Amino acid sequence: MSMIAEEILAMVAILLAPLVIMSLTFIIRKKSQKVTELQRELDTRNERPAIISHEIRTPLTLINGAAELLAEGLAGPLTDQQRTFVTTITENTTQVINISENFLIDAKLKAALPLERQEVDIREVVAQTARQMRRISSVPIHVDAAGGLLPIDADPALIRQLVWNLVNNATRHAGNGATVTVRVNNAEGGGAQLIVSDDGEGISRDDQEHMFEAFRTGSSRRPGTGIGMMVAKRIVEAHDGRILVDSISTQGTAIHVILPASPREEKE
After folding, report:
1. How far apart are the C-alpha atoms of 168 and 217, rounded to whole Å?
2. pTM passes above 0.85
3. How far apart are CA 46 and CA 42, in angstroms?
4. CA–CA distance from 27 to each of 15, 33, 190 (Å)?
5. What is the pLDDT of residue 166?
6. How far apart are CA 60 and CA 40, in angstroms?
7. The predicted structure's pLDDT at residue 165
8. Which residues pair with 224 in a beta bridge?
9. DSSP the chain
10. Who's near 129: CB < 8 A, 6+ residues apart?
């Protein structure tokens, strides 16, 4: 190639360079705008379950409260059939309220909002949850939480939901004739050990592998959304704890949870 041709090509390149840069800048800007739009749409879609859950929780809570007042006989004595209807209302509204709470907590944890930590007596939380659960479940629930105050530094609302999810999962999936037992012990090195077990049908290995995935209900006799155990795992992890499943077919299942006494960053 001659010297003149090379100079001409160099001049053309110099002249075209601004156009190329402008074109690339325009393409990058359009791509960035599209990514921003997609992110906003994704955020909106992720927020919808929490918004819906928040909106339906209040009316369901009112319905549930009214049903409990009827069950207590404050509106007059009930026939056996009426009491059966009221029990059905209470059980099912409680389950839906619980699903709503799980969606709201899941949204909070995904947003990485700071936990509202304070001293929580895990033994008292277990006792309260067992009393509430016995009102809506026919499965016997035993509590082994003898001892004095067992405090952990935790978010009380999340810990209550954790215990509820574990006990609720056990009562729903243990099988006919099973008994659920909730144990609370001092954890080695400080903190609390929570064990929710049943003497029911057990969980298959395949179901155990997907136990903490939403909408994977496995071969349960009473399938639900599966979100309860997923949220339970996230609550435990948010408190720097550990959760594991121990199950043997036909011999029952035990969920083990270790919750440290205080957050990891305060120990370092």
Report:
1. 14
2. no
3. 6
4. 20, 10, 57
5. 93
6. 30
7. 93
8. none
9. --HHHHHHHHHHHHHHHHHHHHHHHHHHHHHHHHHHHHHHHHHHHHHHHHHHHHHHHHHHHHHHHHHHHHHTTTT----HHHHHHHHHHHHHHHHHHHHHHHHHHHHHHHTTPPP--EEEEHHHHHHHHHHHHHTT--S-EEEE--SS--EEEE-HHHHHHHHHHHHHHHHHHS-TT--EEEEEEEPTTSSEEEEEEE-SS---HHHHHTTTSTT--TT-SS---SHHHHHHHHHHHHTT-EEEEEEETTTEEEEEEEE-SS-HHHH-
10. 160, 163, 164, 167, 182
Phi, psi values for residue 204, rounded to 5°: -65, 160
* Averaged pLDDT in 10-residue chunks for the chain of 268 residues: 65 69 77 70 58 69 82 83 86 84 85 87 92 87 86 92 92 83 88 90 75 64 69 93 83 89 56
Q: Which residue's structure tokens are 């007596």?
A: 121
Query: Which residue shows structure tokens 């609370």?
Result: 184
